Amino acid sequence: MKIFLDTAIRADIHRLAAMGVVDGVTTNPSLLKIAKAPYREVIADICEMVAGPVSAEVVAEDWQGMVREGRELSSIAKNVVVKIPMGFEGIRAVAELKKERIATNVTLVFSSNQAILAAKAGARFVSPFIGRLDDVGHDGMEVVEEILAAYEAYGYETEVLVASIRHPQHVVRAALLGAHVVTLPTRVLEAMFQHPLTDIGIRKFLEAWKQVPKS
Ligand code: G3P
After folding, report:
1. Dihedrals phi, psi of 55, to nearest 5 degrees
2. CA 184–ligand 1 middle distance (angstroms)
3. Ligand 1 mean position, distance from CA 3 (Å)
4. Residue 14 CB–ligand 1 contact under 6 Å
5. Whole-angstrom Cα distance, residue 31 to residue 168?
6. 55: CB partners within 8 A, 6+ apart
7. What number does CATH give the domain 2-210?
8. For 55-114, how does the pLDDT look when each residue is reduced to its tens digit (9 = 90+)?
9. Is 158 near ligand 1, meaning CB less than 6 Å away?
10. Distance CA 58, CA 154 (A)
11. Catalytic residue chosen out of the listed positions 2, 78, 83, 120
């Protein structure tokens, strides 16, 4: 399973990419707002830090505008993936960008039906928002399970990119279902490194080492 970082904070991406566990990055307007720098500069920097896909989102509301913005975003670097919101206009834009071989990530997906349409239109990634579904009383991961089964049944090549992840258990469930990608806020990736028994174990080994004869 690929791990993407869901942030536009360049210092965090730089630090965590060095760990060898980051395969790509996803951004959105809310995340770019936090980065507090011109978006083109931020996306270009991120694309240099990670070799894998870097999603950058359009903000136009009509398909023609989305296509124009998609072309502009994809000109920033060859690993940019154009993030397009689900909907009539979005799917039309995905189909158009596909003709130009521009990779897309259909975002704000909350149902299997939406994911099926994204795959049929030729999206490279589909992003079901798990945490936001959980927030309103659904089990977001059930939607991921359905999408994976539907894609498997018809051989769709679109990768399921599990988004709106809130905690490490979401990551475990995504992995057990065979999701292609998870995109993680920095704090969730950092939490995956941690276990109190690891810390206790290290302290015990270091204490023991003090009593090991050194010569
Ligand atoms: O990748 C989508 C993500 O940024 C949305 O997360 O926590 O705002 O639902 P959240």
Report:
1. -85, 135
2. 9
3. 15
4. no
5. 20
6. 4, 24, 25, 26, 27, 28, 80, 81, 82, 83, 105, 107, 125
7. 3.20.20.70
8. 999 999 999 999 999 999 999 999 999 999 999 999 999 999 999 999 999 999 999 999
9. no
10. 29
11. 83
Closest-lying ligand 1 atom to the alpha carbon of residue 30: 4
* Cα 121 to ligand 1 centroid, rounded to whole Å: 23
Check if 132 has its Cβ closer than 6 Å to any atom of ligand 1.
Answer: yes
Average pLDDT score over residue span 156-178:
98
Report the chain's terminal Cα–Cα distance, integer Å. Answer: 46
Report the atom number in ligand 1 closest to the C-alpha of 131: 9
DSSP letter for each residue of 36-97:
TS-HHHHHHHHHHH-SS-EEEE---SSHHHHHHHHHHHHTT-TTEEEEEESSHHHHHHHHHH
- Quick check: 49 and 10 in contact, CB under 8 A? yes
- Asked if 56 contacts 82 with a C-beta cutoff of 8 angstroms, the reply is yes
Q: Is the pTM of this model over 0.90?
A: yes
Q: Look at ligand 1, atom 6, and give the residue with the nearest C-alpha.
A: 164
Q: Is 83 labeled as catalytic in the residue annotation?
A: yes
User: Rounded to the nearest whole angstrom, what is the distance from the C-alpha of residue 163 to the centroid of ligand 1?
Assistant: 6
Side-chain-side CA neighbours of 199 within 13 Å: the count stands at 4
- What gap in Å lies between CA 97 and CA 106, rounded to an integer? 12
**Can you tell me which atom of ligand 1 is nearest the CA of 166?**
7
